[in-house]
Design goal:
Blueprint lengths: L1 H30 L2 E2 L5 E2 L5 H7 E3 L5 E3 L2 H32 L3 H12 L6 H12 L4 H8 L10 H25 L3 H9 L4 H12 L1 H16 L3 H6 L7 H9 L5 H33 L1
Antiparallel strand pairs: 1-2, 3-4
Length: 288
């Protein structure tokens, strides 16, 4: 039995080694390499790529603090945080309504929520290009209301696309948490003369917090590394970390710097996951 436990896990270990550990190791090595004279990289050890994130080399060969990439990091976190917050505000009532439907209608609504996952992300983002465009539905409504300019290639368009792309990731765990609620608890809140808002704040929100936390992680983590929405809907006017990495591996031809930024992004994701894991651990200890 002990031998089976070892050899039975070998395929999983081999899969993790080939698809996770080795690629990350290669990215780490490239981040410490030298930038090639004609693009790409040359093997060696250098911390210039990490230094470039915070400093720039002046005319006198001295390093000066340059916050331009920190601004990109801050913009990335802002977009991800706003996307997560908007998804929470929308997902709570939607998930509550779905959870209180009859089984057949509930299954249909869940199917509709997951339906966008059946379509390529590129197709879905391009659909918003049409909707927000000058001749699109929202574009025409915007012009009819006297709006100046267009809705496309703005931070708002980027945010709309991100919320749409990641909304199902928030609705599903929140729905799962609300569905487990005991209706008697909400009835007790009403019997104690609690308003709907008080019941939602004192009963529903605390009991659905695990689902909200899970949904927030599922939305925030991919939102940090988003590329399509800022590029297509935002027109690439405001760079985020995902587009910065893409640019360095593409037209910028600075692979070590792109790898360094990718590792910084991965470190940010790991910090979020570790904080959430520690919070969940403390919660389990409190409930034990």
């Amino acid at each position: 039995m002990r031998g089976f436990r070892f050899w039975g896990l070998v395929p999983a270990w081999a899969l993790m080694l080939g698809t996770l550990i080795l690629p990350v190791g290669i990215v780490i090595l490239v981040s410490f390499a030298h930038r090639g004279a004609y693009g790409g990289f040359e093997w060696g050890f250098s911390t210039d790529s990490y230094r470039e994130i915070l400093f720039t080399e002046g005319w006198d060969d001295e390093f000066e603090f340059d916050p331009k990439y920190l601004v990109i990091v801050g913009r990335t976190l802002l977009y991800a945080a706003l996307t997560t917050l908007i998804c929470i505000v929308i997902a709570l009532p939607v998930a509550y309504v779905i959870a209180n439907q009859k089984p057949r209608m509930k299954a249909l609504l869940i199917y509709l929520v997951t339906l966008p996952f059946w379509v390529s992300m590129i197709v879905r983002v391009y659909a918003w290009l049409i909707i927000l465009g000058t001749d699109g539905l929202l574009g025409r409504i915007w012009r009819a209301l006297g709006g100046d300019g267009g809705l496309l290639f703005t931070p708002g368009a980027t945010l709309v696309g991100m919320v749409y792309s990641y909304m199902p990731l928030m609705i599903l765990p929140v729905f799962a948490a609300i569905e487990k609620l005991d209706p008697a608890l909400m009835e007790a809140g009403a019997d104690l003369y609690g308003s709907r808002w008080t019941t939602a704040r004192r009963v529903i929100l605390p009991l659905t917090w695990p689902g909200l936390a899970a949904g927030a992680i599922l939305v925030f983590v991919p939102a940090i590394g988003t590329v399509l929405e800022p590029t297509l809907l935002g027109g690439g006017k405001q760079m985020v970390m995902g587009t910065l990495i893409q640019t360095q591996f593409g037209g910028g031809r600075n692979w070590p710097f792109g790898a360094a930024v990718a590792l910084v992004l991965m470190a940010m994701v790991m910090i979020v996951l570790i904080v959430n894991a520690r919070r969940a651990g403390r919660l389990d200890e409190a409930l034990a």
